[in-house]
């Protein structure tokens, strides 16, 4: 008896696409090469699950091909008619705190770099380097959990949001995202930790406790 009774397999959807859709075909091939369906994503699959977690991840990888910017816009896209998953399936997957996304990124890069090393030209003189970057993620409200005011070195001002730190590798031909983290900033005003007033902090705590 199968441990998982998933009835929908996204990795088989390539049969629905024409041969001219090279972007989708390459995503499918990359998915198989990286063995993403074998990754342990969070806790064990539920026997009653309609979709496997690895296949939901594949669905997310297809979002850029269909110019889907977020899960909400997915519900009105052509992709939703192909794989038949409701938007809540992706919301639950993205909000699953048991999934170690950094581990997923690490395993994918390990396989990719290994494949490239097998085909690499040892005589190449291409420059390889690590790239460090920080990016501001501005939010329109302070009511987001763990939010703070951050200082933007680009706009030279403070606003509500998160500071993203990213580590990448450039091998002369391709760029690999190796690691990432999101941060909030304490700020210098001790009366307003994280740039929030006492009333604002209370609202954020109340919202987090009820979510």
Explain what the structure shows:
The protein has about 210 residues and is of the alpha+beta class. The protein has two domains: about 10-95, no CATH class; about 120-210, no CATH class. It has seven helices and four strands. Strands 1, 2, 3 and 4 form a four-stranded antiparallel beta sheet that branches. The protein starts with about 20 loop residues before the first helix and ends with a helix.
Structural descriptors:
single chain; 211 residues; alpha+beta; 2 domains; 34% helix; globular
State the gist of this model.
The chain has helices at 22-33, 53-61, 71-74, 78-83, 87-94, 101-119, 198-210; strands spanning 129-138, 148-152, 157-170, 175-183. It has 211 residues and is α+β, with helices and mostly antiparallel strands.
**What overall form do the CA principal axes indicate?**
globular
User: Helicity range of the residues?
Assistant: 25-40%
First-to-last CA distance: 37 Å
**Strand element count:** 4
Given the helix and strand composition, which structural class is it?
Answer: alpha+beta
> Mean pLDDT, as a whole number?
77
SSE series: HHHHHHEEEEH
- The number of helical runs is 7
How would a textbook summarize the main sheet? 4 strands, antiparallel
User: How many structural domains can be distinguished in the coordinates?
Assistant: 2
List segments where confidence is low: pLDDT < 50 over at least 5 consecutive residues.
Answer: 1-20
How big is the Rg?
A: 21 Å
SSE arrangement:
Elements: H1 22-33, H2 53-61, H3 71-74, H4 78-83, H5 87-94, H6 101-119, E1 129-138, E2 148-152, E3 157-170, E4 175-183, H7 198-210
Antiparallel strand pairs: 1-3, 2-3, 3-4
Protein name: Transposase
Region (Disordered): 192-211
Organism: Plebeiibacterium sediminum
